[in-house]
Write a structure and sequence with these properties.
By secondary structure, this protein is α/β, with parallel strands linked by helices. Helix content is 33%, strand content 15%. Helix 21 (545-552) packs across helix 24.
Length: 814
């Protein structure tokens, strides 16, 4: 088996987690990644926590996790840097617009002029390289504030809350790997290097936006006073005798035996609760209340196993020390062994299993040893067939790649949407008899988009579905019928990629095997997303984002400092699995082009999110205790939090402030004019972290008198990372002027909903403008186009299939 990207040279000139993680992903798939460092080392080497709490360039857990599968070189001269750039296929930087940048005092921009014509320069910055925020400082905290995450995570009456552990950097790193590796699949002959710009904030925005779009469709309106879940409520996490669990009650199958198993016989036989269809719209408060009392005497794992066997999605909140001992992860060989300063530790491994071109941990993060390596003189293996020379497509680098998708709800549909946004022709297989669950969240047209006199269907007008299926086509097929299955098999040879997120037994039950797919279309990629993967003891169990989040360990480190942990305010595992799915498919396309072999991808949502807890897993093992939630604090920045402020209407608002260094601290103190903040105790990061509570109290005095938006503008102009905490629904209703100016948000006209402001691509390619985004398809909208126009059915044959319910759109009588 040949690694997917073996033979590629990737030069990592990054300074942020986003660039480092993008480079690591290239190394995970076999590229030769060289980390070019200044004498003092990559900035992540200075970020704690550290092994035994002793700082050192090779002792940090984040560096150990984000920089493995790389080699390191000490850059000493401009000529050496230029030679490295000239030999690279991909160069990764965190250079913003107009920034010169340097490596140990050696300028970067002159070296980048040496890029090969077919090379890719990947630039990851807080806000991308275009738009009014492009030159503004940004951090993970401000990204959470700008995208709505901090707002939806908050508890009632408490400050907005960031996602844990620099997730914005991980998300952007995956997006960077995805786009840069996709660019390498694009046509040759551009005549100039491709530059790909990623906005960390926009990439993170795509992991939460559906809830805002759904709120807008339903006319929830604006309110800065409302929002947040009540502290102490049983739902969404319930206390059991030995820990916490999540129960996805609306999606429970076998309701009666499941409720009896939880000791609630009086609710088990309520006739209105037994059908799962429509349960989402019912008031389940009486059930939650009863569960809160009944479950406290029961232990987690027996409850998990019994309910999972009944096909009820449930999840145990695993601490990170429990995670590394989990029998399912052990059965799947998910954990890998690395080292931190010679100490062997286990870490999360591959976000997806690749059968033909496997992911691998080949080497731990390189030591800072000051050695220079002549990368340019080393032999390079062949990298497959040369790319065809043709003009870049306005659709994107994946133009010509065809994807047949059975994606449902969010993870599968979002992953294939990313491929569509990169230019792939994605055909979504829908169903007339059981449409996508995100089409069925309501049996009515949402009130804010309902238009009297206009033909509208509830299935075509749901904000959740329409927000994650852009730029696709949809074909309906009833695979219960022989003619539906026959059409499926006739379609398959026309596609490069098959995607599903069914239970692991469904596709094989239809006769789908990798060998059969390869016979139909040599080199086909078959990618599956499921809660727990296709193998292991949990593989038959149902799951969704709300249950795999606690199972992954993320819930145990998310929350306010001192809390026991909680689920995020969205369903973070779904979009993160979608990101990893798209990245895995692109890696598999590289492997296909190299070997001609069919490629199988098995992605577990639980494992994909566990990857994002990697450095915390290392920390927990090294310290002998699992880390817990850290709130809004940060190990390398202080102050770092969300502070109360005034809104434009005089109501309560919030502003996120993150001070990254002494220069930013001086600028913040100057902006406040508060002489108390000049106290010598607050000098340096160590002093500010020691007295962070006192600093926060003084800062809050100042921010309470400030308009949040104006304070953001003033602080950013001074070089301080700051952002007003934006309610999620506000971003896409007004819409956000910064997202609008950068091109991330655009008005998209849906045939039944009409115009909506929707987010699209968080990346920009220098090779030319991208095609305008198309709206999410209506049910079966492209059935005739595909079956008659592409498969060659006659109009009479198509009409017969519509009449028998095999295919068709709602307007065709479904």
């Amino acid at each position: 088996m040949v690694p997917a990207l073996e033979g590629l040279h990737v030069l990592d000139l990054s300074t942020r987690l986003s660039g480092a993680f993008a480079g690591r992903l290239f190394g995970d798939f076999g590229a030769d990644v060289l980390l070019a460092e200044p004498p003092g080392g990559h900035p992540l080497r200075a970020q704690g926590p550290f092994l035994d709490d002793q700082p050192g360039p090779d002792r940090g857990f984040l560096n150990a996790f984000a920089n493995w599968n790389k080699r390191s070189t000490a850059v000493r001269t401009a000529d050496e840097l230029a030679r490295l750039v000239a030999s690279a296929d991909v160069v990764i930087t965190n250079l913003g617009p107009g920034e010169e940048g340097d490596i140990g005092g050696i300028p970067l921009r002159p070296a980048l002029a040496q890029l090969k014509p077919d090379a890719v320069h990947l630039s990851l910055t807080p806000h991308g390289n275009s738009g009014p925020l492009a030159s503004i400082p940004g951090t993970h905290l401000t990204a959470c504030a700008r995208t709505g995450w901090a707002w939806v995570n908050r508890l009632q009456g408490e400050p907005p809350l960031q996602l844990p552990r620099d997730q914005a950097g991980y998300v952007a790193g995956i997006a960077g790997f995805l786009t840069a590796s996709a660019a390498l699949l694009g046509p040759a002959g551009r005549g100039a290097p491709e530059e790909v710009s990623i906005s960390e904030t926009e990439a993170l925005a795509l992991t939460v936006h559906p809830w805002g779009i759904a709120a807008i469709y339903n006319g929830q309106g604006f309110s800065n006073a409302a929002g947040g879940r009540p502290r102490g409520a049983d739902y969404p996490l319930f206390d059991l005798a030995d820990g916490k669990m999540h129960f996805a009650l609306p999606d429970f199958h076998n309701w009666t035996p499941a409720l009896e198993a939880m000791g609630l016989p009086e609710l088990a036989h309520r006739e209105d609760l037994i059908p799962d269809l429509g349960r989402h719209s019912l008031d389940l408060t009486p059930v939650f209340t009863a569960m809160g009392g009944s479950l406290k005497s029961r232990e987690r794992w027996p409850v998990f196993e019994r309910l999972a066997e009944l096909r009820c999605p449930v999840g145990v909140v695993q601490t990170l020390d429990e995670l590394v001992e989990n029998p399912h992860l052990q059965a799947r060989d998910f954990l890998v062994e690395t080292e931190v300063e010679g100490r062997r530790l286990r870490a999360p491994g591959a976000p997806a299993k690749h059968t033909s071109s496997p992911w691998a941990l080949r080497r731990p993060a390189p030591r800072l040893d000051g050695q220079a390596r002549d990368w340019t003189a080393e032999p390079r293996p062949a990298v497959g067939q040369p790319r065809p020379a043709r003009s870049p497509s306005p659709e994107g680098p994946l133009a010509g790649v065809r994807v047949l998708s059975f994606g449902q709800a969010w993870s599968g549909t979002f992953g294939t949407e990313l491929l569509a946004l990169l230019g792939a022709d994605v055909v979504q297989i829908g169903s007339r008899h059981r449409p996508d669950v995100w089409r069925r969240v309501s049996g009515a047209v949402p009130r804010a988009v309902a238009q009297p006199g206009r033909t509208q269907h509830a299935l075509n007008t749901q904000g959740l579905y329409n927000s994650v299926n852009l730029h696709k086509r949809e074909l309906t097929l009833d695979l219960r019928q022989d003619s539906g299955r026959d059409l499926f098999w006739r379609l398959l040879p026309r596609f490069d990629v098959l995607v599903d997120n069914f239970r692991s037994t469904v596709m094989p039950g239809w006769g789908v095997t990798l060998e059969r797919l390869h016979a139909l279309r040599p080199g086909m990629v078959w990618a599956s997303v499921s809660g727990y993967g296709a193998t292991g003891p949990y593989s038959p169990f149902p799951a969704n984002g709300s249950t795999t989040e606690p199972m992954s360990g993320l819930s145990s480190i998310h929350g306010y400092a001192g809390d026991a942990g909680m689920n995020t305010g969205g369903l973070f595992p779904d979009p993160m699995s979608g990101y990893f799915l798209a990245a895995s498919v692109v890696a598999a396309l590289h492997a296909r082009d190299r070997t001609g072999e069919a490629q199988r991808i098995d992605l577990s949502m639980m494992e994909a999110v566990a990857v994002l807890c990697g450095e915390a897993v290392l920390e927990g093992q090294a310290r002998g205790r699992a880390p817990g939630p850290g709130g809004n604090r940060h190990p390398a920045m202080a102050p770092h939090g969300c502070f109360p402020a005034k809104g434009h209407d005089g109501g309560e608002d919030w502003i996120a402030i993150a001070v990254s260094d002494d220069l930013a601290w001086s600028a913040l103190v100057e902006a406040t004019g508060d002489l108390r903040l000049r106290d010598p105790r607050f000098a340096g990061l160590e002093g500010r972290r020691r007295f962070e509570d006192e600093i926060d109290s003084l800062l809050a005095e100042w921010t309470r008198g400030q308009d949040a938006a104006q304070a953001e503008s003033d602080l950013c102009a001074r070089g301080v990372a700051a952002a007003r905490v934006v309610p999620l629904y506000e971003l896409y209703d007004r819409p956000d002027p910064n997202f609008l100016a950068s091109g991330f948000v655009s008005e998209i006209v849906h045939p039944e909903v009409g115009p909506s402001w929707l987010p699209g691509r968080p990346w920009r390619f220098a090779s030319g403008p991208s095609a305008a985004l198309r709206p999410a398809p209506c049910v079966g909208e492209h059935s005739r186009e595909i079956l008659v126009g592409e498969l060659g059915l006659t109009e009479a044959e198509y009409a017969g299939l519509v009449a028998s319910g095999v295919t068709g759109s709602l307007s065709e009588g479904a």
